[in-house]
Amino acid sequence: MKLTSTDIQHKRFRTRWLGLDTKEVQLFCQELTEEIETLKVENSGLRKDLQEQEKELREYKEREKTIRAVLLTAHKTAEQTKANAEKEAKLIVAEAELQAEKILQAAHQRLARIHDDMAELKRHRIQLETKLRATVETYQHLLNADKDDEKENEPLSRIKVLNR
After folding, report:
1. DSSP 8-state class, residue 14
2. Domain that holds residue 94
3. CA 105, CA 79: separation in Å to the nearest integer?
4. From CA 110, how far away is CA 92, in angstroms rounded?
5. What is the pLDDT of residues 60-114, one digit of tens each?
6. What is the CA radius of gyration of the chain?
7. Quick check: 53 and 46 in contact, CB under 8 A?
8. Hey, how many other C-beta atoms are within 10 angstroms of the C-beta on 28?
9. Within 10 A of 32 (CB to CB), how many other CB atoms are there?
10. Are 3 and 35 in contact (CB under 8 A)?
11. How many CB atoms lie within 10 A of CB 21?
12. How is 79-129 classified by DSSP, letter by letter?
């Protein structure tokens, strides 16, 4: 039988000739003692459970704290890795642009040299053509001069031939 504080406060004992019924008081005290022992055992068990649960709660809070720290570290590491990757990508792009600029500059320089070489070759061709024309004209003049000489000498040779 579970006794409540209200049951204890309202308990009334029968009265007898010399006072209260001793058996009834002893029986009630016996019930109270059993109930108090039961409550003590239950209270002790609950305290033990409470201590274990508080210990588990502390462990869970410690784990939660560790997990939060790990997550925060992982988040910071991820952000740092992302930032480093972005910096590295920008560096790679900048290096590629620089390399492309160098290649383009070298190509422009080579093109300029080719144009200069072509202009030089054209000048040489013009000079050669001019020299060749001058040589051909010189030979033509020589040939014409030889023909003129022959024409001048021809009447003499005819005379010589006729005189013979």
Report:
1. P
2. 5-163
3. 38
4. 26
5. 999 999 999 999 999 999 999 999 999 999 999 999 999 999 999 999 999 999 9
6. 64
7. no
8. 17
9. 14
10. yes
11. 14
12. HHHHHHHHHHHHHHHHHHHHHHHHHHHHHHHHHHHHHHHHHHHHHHHHHHH
Please count the structural domains in the chain: 1
Contact 13, 25 (CB under 8 A): yes
* Count of all residues that appear for the chain in the document: 164
Task: Say what the pTM is.
Answer: 0.45
Position 157 confidence tier, pLDDT thresholds 50, 70, 90: low
pLDDT in tens, 14-59: 777 777 777 888 888 888 888 888 888 999 999 999 999 999 999 9
Contact between residue 18 and residue 8 where contact means Cβ atoms under 8 Å apart: no
Nearest to 130 by CA among 119, 141, 118, 138: 138
DSSP annotation of 16 reads E
Q: What's the N-to-C CA distance of the chain in angstroms?
A: 184
Question: CB count, 10 Å around CB of 52?
Answer: 10
Tokens found for residue 120: 């030089």
